Amino acid sequence: MPRLLRARDNRNRPIVAPGDGAVTRLCYFNLLRLRAGESVTLDVPSCELLCVVLSGRADIAACAQEFKNVGRRADIWAGPADSVYCGTCPRVTVRAVRDGTEVAVAGGVCSTPFAPFRITPEEVEMVEVGSHDTHSRRRIFHVLGQNGAGRAGNLLVSELYGDAGCWSGYPPHKHDTDRLPDETNHEELYHYRYRPENGFGAQFCYADDGGGAQPEVVMTRHGDTFCIDRGYHPTLRAPGHEGYIFTILVGARHRGLVQSFEPTHEHLTAKIPGIQAMRDKFK
Question: Which domains are assigned to the chain?
Answer without folding.
Answer: 10-119 (2.60.120.10), 124-283 (2.60.120.10)
